[in-house]
Specification:
Length: 370
């Protein structure tokens, strides 16, 4: 069964995005710069790749040979894995890294060296999350069997404690994705007709994915276990630690951008329509945070400028800081919300407050009282 396509209200202030797009295009024309990666992005790419692969090489070549040094290498790989996912692979799979599709494809394939499958990522993130942000039943980023991320989802007794157990599940997110979720989602996407839109079939994609998974396990885990002279269980512990660091970083960056007290959640009406036009929908379901933190923004791929990313996913993230005042000014002109927190901590607090409210049911009571 194919996934139904939602329709947005194109009559709802279409001039907002028309003017915004014109001003953003005007910015690049006026500055005479490309919308794609610049020299700073190339430097970041080299750094993030080195942060992941150099510690790995130091392990397998014996430079890092003690238990402590090996664990340090796994920890650095966790940061490098996060950096590649947030800064390089993410832009590339959006087609935002380069105007050359082959460069985008090559860098997008890096996700397979992190344990995930590139086609599944493109479907869940590019197709579903970016199209139907915070729409229950469509946005895979707010669908989780052990947590409640939307007031439109059924509340279970277990969810009462989700604000407390969330960090554990955030930490195992990439492990679950690599070894369980990818297989489940590949079958689901095939049934929904989404694999076909990516130009592949279930059998071809499954063979390809299994090949990548086996290669990932052999190269990143088995080979170090055979070469590095420390107990095998310590290597597995390091591998798990790497994934836990990555899962925690990714979850704590993406969740405060959409699942917070300010943002809205939606379900389509009986005709499969959403009340706002697509651009305004993005503004109502997305938030920025810590926009003045230069180093933090650099490491997380500019995703603290999540509003700009959702409106212009095909523009490289190195430009988001300059685009932010443009977006904010046009939003104010049309009375469109521009949600943001001054600090990352404030965004996290809002996220966990909402998790608690969704888990205990207090958020539902608040909605009922409106």
């Amino acid at each position: 069964m194919s996934t139904p396509t939602l329709t947005f209200n194109t009559k709802n202030q279409p001039e907002f995005f028309l003017e915004l797009t014109k001003k953003v295009n005007g910015y690049f024309k006026e500055k005479g710069i490309s919308k794609y990666a610049n020299a700073n992005m190339v430097i970041k790419t080299i750094f993030m790749l080195a942060l992941y692969f150099v510690p790995f090489l130091l392990m397998v070549t014996g430079v890092a040979s003690t238990a402590g040094s090996v664990m340090l290498m796994w920890g650095l790989m966790g940061l490098g894995m996060s950096g590649i996912g947030l800064s390089i692979m993410h832009d590339a799979n959006h087609g935002a890294y380069s105007k050359n599709k082959y460069i985008n494809n090559a860098l997008g394939y890096l996700i397979n060296f992190l344990g995930a499958y590139h086609i599944n990522w493109k479907i869940q993130h590019n197709v579903l999350h970016h199209s139907y942000t915070n729409v229950d039943g469509y946005d895979g980023d707010i669908t989780n069997p052990v947590m409640r991320f939307s007031p439109d989802q059924k509340r279970k007794k277990l969810f009462k404690f989700q604000a407390f157990y969330a960090p554990f599940f955030y930490g195992i997110m990439t492990l679950y994705w690599a070894f369980v979720k990818d297989f489940i989602k590949l079958v689901d996407y095939s049934k929904q007709g989404l694999l076909e839109r990516q130009g592949t079939t279930l059998s071809k994609a499954m063979i390809s994915m299994i090949f990548y998974k086996i290669g990932y396990i052999v190269v990143i885990l088995i080979i170090p276990m055979l070469i590095v002279d420390i107990p095998w269980w310590q290597m597995i512990l390091g591998f798990l630690m790497m994934h836990f660091i990555t899962g925690m970083v990714l979850a704590l960056i993406f969740q405060p951008a959409h699942v917070i007290e300010n943002t809205n959640f939606y379900t389509p009406d009986s005709t499969g329509s959403v009340a706002n036009n697509w651009a305004i929908h993005q503004m109502r379901t997305t938030a920025n945070f810590a926009n003045k933190s230069v180093l933090f923004s650099w490491f997380i791929g500019g995703l603290n400028f999540q509003i700009e990313h959702h409106l212009f996913p095909h523009i490289c993230h190195v430009h988001y800081k300059k685009l932010s005042p443009i977006v904010k000014k046009v939003a104010q002109k049309y009375n469109v919300p521009y949600y943001q927190h001054k600090t990352f901590v404030a965004a996290l607090v809002s996220h966990f407050k909402l998790l608690n409210q969704l888990g205990t049911g207090s958020y539902d009571k608040k909605l009922a009282a409106v």
